[in-house]
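We treat protein structure as text, and this decision shapes the records that our systems exchange. We quote a single record here, exactly as it is kept in our systems:
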Amino acid sequence: MNTANGNAPSLDTLVEELRRGEETWATLSLGARRGLLAALSAALQQHAQEWVDVACAIKGLDPGSQLTGEEWISGPYAVLSGVGALSATLAALDAGHSPLDGFHLSRAPGDRVAVRVLPHDLFDRLLLNGFTAEVWSEPGVTADRLRKTAGLGQRTPKETGGVGLVLGAGNIFSIAPLDTLYELFAHNRVVLLKLNPITDPLLPVLTKVFARFIELGLLRIVTGGVDVGSAAVAHPGIGHVHITGSVRSHDVIVFGPGEEGRARQARGHVLLDKPITSELGGVSPTIVVPEKWSKRDLAFQAEHIVTQKLHNNGYNCVASQVLVLSSDWPQKEDFLEALREAFTRAVARPAYYPGSDARCAAAVKDHPGTARQVADGSRVLVEGIPADDDIAFTEEYFAPVLAVTSLPGQEREFLDRAVAFANDRLSGTLGANVVAHPRAIRALGADFTRFIADLRYGTVAVNAWTGVGYLTARAPWGAFPGHTLQDAQSGIGIVHNGLLLDGTERTVVHGPFRPFPRSVLTGRLTLSPRPPWFVTNRTAAGTGRRLTAFAGRPGWTKLPGIFASALRG
């Protein structure tokens, strides 16, 4: 076990240091805590390039590739955005206000309240023009309750929550830092962060970024294998565990390994003697609502869905895995042809995540005759899967594997079948994507609104990837509420949630169906070009770097460079 300073102190020593750090945390005012966030932001801006360089080395990406934009946006940009949102929440509380002051609240279906979190200010309206995000409360939660409880642990900063363990993810490198911040600020818990071995090379960067937190004993970062994580989980000084990973890892922590663990799980016999929260991925769908599309619409939305699958080479908890089409859509075959071309032509990249090639091979074996390997065999497209049952509906491949299935019907009939399929056949509830022409949305009216409300997912994205919800710092990120330790699916609890809201159920994201300038043809002009997270974006690296600089220190003078880069994408 190694720590930030290169030494190997015992776990007992680390936990004792954090226990003393908890006492320090209890004495810090909201202003002092904002100062820590400001120091983190400054350090991250200083070391952002180093972060991205290390990330590219881990993932085998050419530093000159457009794909480095993914590491800027899902790395330093995401953390800086999260820090900014938390700082604004603390400032509101420190001034005696609710963090929700200034946010638009409205009614959502099913006795819910919607909080508009994107756009929040003029910069949002300019940089993400055409994108919106709402946080929906759980049914019955009132606007007054949301306002009064916003702030969570920072409403009572002296009431600390002990020492928590964060088991970091190995795929998106902002996850562990953001999970750490959520433990500190939502729950007032100091943190022992155990890095996933894939991310161990980031330890020196994270040490610099979190230097002030480490100096005050609020955070310790360790590396090592399963033995280190297991010892930390079992340590009596650890009062809470948070994991981002697979449901299998979660179940081993809660019930134990092997056949005995599975037997305990079946009986509901929990071995873990402390609370656990989790984000565990799942099988995410993309549902395409049938409507007449232009040839350019077919090509653009094919790129969009390929991005939902191949961003980070498919190693995302919310990567789309099952594409749901209408078998009665006259353009179904035209769209599949555009999808095959985009899936094949996407930029090649290494399969850096352990076991990826084996999981791709398993997908081919699972689907004899219907699976095709493309891009020199590094990706798998499975077409014509019957909608009644398939392993692709229950097994998260966590690899560049995309399955395609079809349901009969048009309009409301198709929506009803699609929502039942997604809710009842697919494992997990982290995110669902919907692609629908504005004309179809208008024609369906209340039926479309009901369809979105009926999808039981933590993030639902319409004409956008659910990854936009991950990047929306004020939006909660996590599974749909209601999972249990015995059946955790996509996890229990939320993270991010920069407004520190209580009683939330989901985030609903909307994006433009067409990029600028073709967006004017939908009847609603939006200014967003091809988004920088698209795997086909030619200037993603430069745009991502500029957006990161803006997130660290917003300013009008940075906008022209961002716009110029984005428009060339």
Remarks:
- The radius of gyration is 23 Å.
